[in-house]
Design goal:
By secondary structure, the protein is α/β, with parallel strands linked by helices. The strands form three sheets. Strands 4, 5, 6, 7, 8, 9, 10, 11 and 12 form a nine-stranded mixed beta sheet that branches. A three-stranded antiparallel beta sheet has the order 1-2-3, sandwiched between helices. Strand 9, helix 10 and strand 10 form a beta-alpha-beta unit. The N and C termini lie far apart (46 Å). Its cofactor is Mg(2+).
Length: 382
């Protein structure tokens, strides 16, 4: 076994944070600790853990995970778990590369040969979805996701919901499926109306119909609609997920591998969800390392349903980087008939272009989350 020699991190455009771990024998692995809008906070956590874990056995992934969780006293939350994810994913990559096998072989092996995927259209202020959906169809996608609404008031005019229905109908008329992301920006007085309005047009799912702190409201909404309810990007551990499963208010769980402590916790959360007949559709509007990590887990899960991809997502626009950046074989993300093939090669199955990572990380700015201000000057949910 090789002891951890270095833990490095790289802030890169458009809004990602990569981690590289190297052991004393020169073996290395890559992880992703991206937490959109909170890069500096995660970097601070990684600084502390880099000092702590130098000299630990790199093969002892679970021991390092448990040390991080159980000896810190304060635990969980997006910053802590994103930093842990970067380390965990990198350690899995290092170990599997050293053994010259894909990570999925260390998780029990694959149960499928390709993965169903979807991509974003529309942006934060969705418009012109027909053209964008047609472009996605030409890329090989059969499913997309879009924000259901722009910013919206706590109690707004019902007419504010009409465009969401029309956009869903437009995509369905192209023979594609569409998930509608409420983004936690729609409050209960409007969310119940929007779910009812969308229901006859059969969205693939409605995502974050309410903020996750309103579990009772989500449970009520789940009893009022036949639309599958998806959520999970703001739940950061199996302990966060558990009450939603017990309440029976989620149909599709969307854990983010870069926000939940990595591959180790993703596997555990998926197993929990399986016992409640809940599907897994990992959240991943992030970089190629996070997506590769998702894919390594996805192919081992009986309850996997569909994988989010950030290819051409609006957050990447103007940054000079996209999902196809930072990897030596961008064709690994090619989509055909709504699916991508399993990644080939050991570890994560991708080869990171380290020279590009190091170059673009120089003076990279931290991404700042946008926000919405309403017509009265009030802050609205983004």
């Amino acid at each position: 076994m090789g002891k951890i020699a270095t833990i490095e991190y790289f802030r890169v455009p458009p809004r990602w944070l990569f981690v590289k771990i190297t052991d004393a024998d020169g073996n290395f692995g890559w992880g992703e600790a991206s937490l959109e809008g909170h890069t500096q906070a995660v970097e601070g956590c990684l600084d502390a853990w880099a000092e702590r874990y130098i000299g630990f056995e790199a093969d002892e992934i679970e021991h390092i995970w448990q040390m991080s969780w159980r000896t810190s006293f304060y635990r969980g939350g997006p910053v802590f778990m994103s930093a842990l994810a970067g380390i965990d994913i990198a350690l899995w990559d290092l170990k599997a590369r050293k053994l010259n096998v894909p990570i999925y072989q260390l998780l029990g092996g694959k149960v499928r040969n390709k993965l169903k995927v979807y991509a974003w259209i529309g942006g934060d202020r969705p418009s012109d979805v027909k053209t964008q959906a047609e472009a996605r169809k030409a890329q090989g996608f059969t499913a997309v996701k879009m924000n259901a609404t722009e910013d919206i008031g706590w109690l707004d005019s019902p007419s504010a919901l009409h465009s969401a229905v029309e956009r869903l109908k437009t995509v369905k008329d192209l023979g594609m499926d569409a998930g509608m992301d409420f983004h936690g920006r729609v409050h209960k007085p409007m969310a119940k109306q929007l779910a009812r309005a969308l229901e006859p047009h059969h969205p693939l799912f409605i995502e974050e119909p309410l903020l996750s702190e309103h579990i009772a409201g989500i449970k009520d909404l789940a009893q009022q609609t036949s639309c599958p309810i998806a959520l999970g990007e703001r739940l950061h551990s199996r302990w966060d997920v558990r009450p939603f499963l017990e309440a029976g208010c989620v149909d599709i769980l969307q854990p983010d591998i870069s926000h939940i402590g990595g591959i180790s916790e993703m596997r555990r959360i998926a197993s929990m969800a399986e016992t409640y007949d809940v599907a897994i559709a990992p959240h991943c509007p992030l970089g190629p390392i996070a997506l590769a990590a998702c894919c390594q887990v996805d192919c081992t899960l009986a309850n996997f349903s569909i994988q989010e991809m950030s290819l051409g997502i609006h957050y990447n626009a103007g940054s000079g980087a996209d999902l196809t950046s930072y990897v030596k074989d961008p064709a690994c993300w090619d989509v055909k008939d709504g699916y991508i093939e399993l990644l080939k090669g050991p570890g994560l199955g991708i080869e990171v272009d380290e020279e590009m990572v190091r170059e673009l990380s120089k003076d990279a700015k931290a991404w700042v989350s946008p926000g919405f201000i309403g017509p009265g000057g009030e802050v609205r949910e983004w």
